[in-house]
């Protein structure tokens, strides 16, 4: 536990640049870096584990979440950091359930109701946004990208959406984080229009695969974070 590292040695070990290490330090994400008698910076085993934990968290969680957690740990707010991680683990569980729910929806031939809401062939943008659980601005963006199409009410010029387009919007809202490339989405929605269930199922399997990989990365990040917390306690006690 006594081995120390120069910035270059640490960067080599973590496969990052010394600039990246300094950025993490400036963001206050790792323990304060001590200096030798000759004023040279050096890293302890605690710093090694802090950097490893941070890099592992970034793989499983979004960067802002990882930074927030490491910042909380730096300040000694361990429980708050753990609850932050717990919340984002819950989010991935909800996302998985939603993907599975939408797969069931696509396989249904009757689409006159969705979550106890009556579905019609002429729904306003606000209605489909509320049903799908997205912002109207997202629907406008997807229409601009050519992913969905609306009609215009001849009487007032308002956008109206059919049940088929609502189904596409629900699919987009479910897969936008897991199958996010526009071209992938276009292929999926084309398959939805032609009722090509085999192609749709393949896309959903990819989505679930991505979530499974993210979950593994999250669990690894949590494992490294717990090692960091334990090591931090060890250094404080000794």
Automatic annotation (TrEMBL):
The answer, when asked if Transcription is one of the entry's keywords, is yes
Q: Which Pfam families match?
A: MerR
- Record keywords, A-Z: DNA-binding, Repressor, Transcription, Transcription regulation
Which GO molecular function annotation, any one, does this entry have?
Answer: DNA binding
> Known InterPro entries for this protein?
DNA-bd_dom_put_sf, MerR-type_HTH_dom, MerR_fam
Q: Which SMART domains match?
A: HTH_MERR
Q: Which residues belong to any copy of the HTH merR-type domain?
A: 4-44, 122-191
Question: Where on the tree of life does the source sit, at the highest rank?
Answer: Bacteria
Name the chain's protein: MerR family transcriptional regulator
């Amino acid at each position: 536990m006594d081995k120390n590292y120069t910035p270059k040695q640490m960067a080599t070990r973590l496969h990052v640049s010394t600039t990246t290490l300094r950025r993490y330090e400036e963001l206050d994400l790792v323990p304060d870096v001590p200096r030798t008698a000759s004023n040279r910076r050096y890293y302890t085993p605690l710093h090694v584990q802090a950097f490893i934990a941070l890099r592992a968290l970034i793989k499983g969680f979004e960067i802002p979440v990882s930074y927030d957690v490491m910042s909380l740990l730096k300040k000694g707010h361990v429980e708050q950091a753990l609850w932050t991680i717990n919340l984002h683990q819950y989010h991935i569980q909800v996302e998985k359930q939603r993907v599975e729910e939408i797969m069931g929806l696509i396989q249904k031939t009757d689409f006159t109701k969705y979550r106890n809401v009556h579905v019609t062939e002429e729904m306003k943008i606000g209605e489909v946004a509320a049903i799908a659980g997205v912002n109207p601005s997202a629907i406008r963006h997807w229409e601009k990208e050519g992913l969905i199409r609306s009609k215009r009410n001849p009487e007032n010029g308002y956008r109206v959406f059919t049940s088929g387009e609502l189904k596409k919007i629900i699919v987009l809202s479910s897969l936008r984080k897991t199958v996010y490339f526009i071209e992938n989405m276009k292929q999926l929605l084309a398959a939805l229009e032609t009722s090509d269930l085999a192609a749709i199922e393949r896309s959903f399997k990819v989505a679930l695969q991505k979530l499974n990989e993210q979950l593994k990365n999250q669990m690894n990040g949590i494992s490294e974070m717990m090692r960091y917390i334990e090591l931090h306690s060890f250094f404080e006690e000794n």
